[in-house]
Amino acid sequence: MISAHQLTKRFGDFTAVDAIDVEVRRGEAFGFLGPNGAGKSSTMRMIGCVSPPSGGALRILGMDPATDGPAIRGRLGVVPQRDSLDEELTVRENILVYGRYFGMPRRVVNEKADELLEFAQLTERANSVVEPLSGGMKRRLTIARSLVNDPELLLLDEPTTGLDPQARHVLWDRLFRLKRSGVTLVLTTHYMDEAEQLCDRLVVMDGGRIVAEGSPRELIALHSTREVLELRFPADDHAPYAAKLTDLAQRVEVLPDRLLLYTEDGDATAAAVHDRGLAPLSVLARRSTLEDVFLHLTGRTLVD
Amino acid sequence: MSAATTTASGTRPAQPAEGRMAGRAFAFWLTDYRRVWRGTIISGFLSPLFFLVAMGFGLGALVDDGVAGGVRGLDYVQFIAPGILAAQAMQTAVGESTFPVMGAVKWHRLYDAMLATPLGIADIVLGHVAFVAMRITITSVAFAVVAVALGAIGSWWVLLAVPAAVLTGLAFTTPVFAFSVSQDNDGGFNVLFRFIVMPMFLFSGTFFPVEQLPVALELVAWATPLWHGVELCRGLVTETATLAGSLGHAGYLTLWVAGGLWLAFAGFRKRLVT
């Protein structure tokens, strides 16, 4: 569906996307993870054929975005990072107008709109003006609208950013259904739970480059340990404790309020800590998550 | 979802080339307009009507009774009616090409939504310009009807003066599109309204012949698209036009439309396709 080779995007002297290689296969859900400014959105805009690449080769649905932009976009669905709904039109009109951009006859779009409103659980609000709707509803409408042309490939740029937990779960459920019905999903996110929930495969981007690639499980196996032991000690500075424990774990990370011990067996490591006569205030053994991988790969410092 | 299942087949009608889908963008603006058209029609021709009545009949009475005895042998109201027709086209054009364009770029991201579909830059610009042309046509027709009813215009040539006014409006639409898409906030619009549109309105032959101006300013007036629009409309409805003169004015206005369109394409591309 998507094949990018040494894909690059430059804005003046700044290189937003730095020679990345990506292959997305039909029917899979593929994720771009990364902190803000990692180059995810620039990559999505190139895939969406609205931003010409500065270098490298890009094929979408077997076509070249430089020459076949309209034909490719006719088969894509795009959910942009910020909603671009016409807030003064009604929910239903937004879908109708959008369908017309694809050259769909009025009658066809009308039928399609009913179906999409149902899918997005917006049937009851069909004739409401968009402006006063909740963020979750607007997001669902944006997704419904992006499906008007029965896209083979759906691009979602941070689909659930800014939504409350209920709204996010509803959206995930809808995206699951789409995936099951054969639509290829490509999404960006900086929510690790979202990536673990939705993505078959993902890449982690940082500074315009791909720093890791694989399924969520593979990434955890490759870049983290099976479990993480979190220890909290009655002290302002946890560094001295870390020094006493380095040999008990593959890696020890010092945070302001706790220590993280990356280990294969959290309980065994906890016992070993106690054997050394140390008494943490709290002990928590948990499985490694994608978040551990992500923070390990892209660092804990803020990048703005 | 059943419909999404049918997608996997991958057979979808091919899309036309960029620039051939402007009608789809135009259809959007039409949908948008359906909510507000009543208000725009009233506000769109009330103000030129006020000008026509106040200047044409009020001030006109003094002009016609004075030493001048009208302008170029015409009643003053007949002199200014075609001028106001052209000037109104300019006002409508500039109004429709400033905030709506900035809004579609920045506030509502309507163009972004269109660009995510098969539409390209040429389609969104031409579709929106076509809508502005329709708006200018509506206000021009409304004004012409009133001017004829009041006796300010008394020639069948008004039928050609309306398209002439639309052409005048378009000579402002496309350059102002290019200007608006380059602006980050509305500060530039105030400059445009106060220092370009308003002086042009007053000094481009709408209310008095530009020969009354000092020579230097007269030369400036000749360069403005509005003066050519006013002369074109006035020549038609007062039945004083020559073919060569009219074609000259129309040609000059067309140059502005074409040059503005070229700049608008470049400006839209720079702002939206990065």
Notes on the protein architecture:
Helices cover 37% and strands 26% of the residues of chain A. Chain A is of the alpha/beta class and 304 residues long. Chain A has 2 domains: 2-214, P-loop containing nucleotide triphosphate hydrolases (Rossmann fold, 3-Layer(aba) Sandwich), CATH 3.40.50.300; 225-287, 2-Layer Sandwich (Alpha-Beta Plaits). In chain A, strand 6 (153-157), helix 6 and strand 7 form a beta-alpha-beta unit. In chain A, helix 3 packs across helix 4 and helix 3 (91-101) runs parallel beside helix 5 (135-146). The two termini of chain A are 32 Å apart. Chain B is an all-alpha fold. Chain B has one domain (19-272). Chain B is built from 12 helices and no strands. In chain B, helix 2 packs across helix 7 and helix 7 (121-149) runs antiparallel to helix 8 (158-181). The radius of gyration of chain B is 21 Å and the shape is elongated. Mean pLDDT of chain B is 90; it is low at 1-11. At the A-B interface, helix 2, helix 3 and helix 4 of A face helix 1, helix 2 and helix 6 of B. Chain A: Belongs to the ABC transporter superfamily. Chain A: Keywords: Antibiotic resistance, ATP-binding, Cell membrane, Membrane, Nucleotide-binding, Translocase, Transport. Chain A: This is ABC transporter ATP-binding protein.
Provide the CATH topology of the largest domain in chain A: Rossmann fold
Q: Which structural class fits the helix and strand makeup of chain B?
A: mainly alpha
Number of strands of chain A: 13
Largest sheet of chain B: none
Largest interface comes to: A-B, 44 and 39 residues
Strand fraction of chain B equals under 5%
Helix content class of chain B: over 70%
Report Rg of chain B.
21 Å
CA-atom Rg of chain A in angstroms: 23 Å
Gross morphology of chain B is elongated
**How are helices and strands ordered from N to C of chain A?**
EEEHEHEHHHEHEHEEHEHEEHEH
Taking the sheet with the most strands of chain A, its summary is:
6 strands, mixed
Helix proportion of chain A: 25-40%
- Which CATH C-level class of the largest domain in chain A is it? Alpha Beta
Tell me the distance between the termini of chain A: 32 Å
Stretches of chain B where pLDDT is under 50 for at least 5 consecutive residues are 1-11
H-E string of chain B: HHHHHHHHHHHH
- Count of DSSP-assigned helices of chain B: 12
Would you report the number of β strands of chain B? 0
Q: How much of the residues of chain A is beta strand, in percent?
A: 25-35%
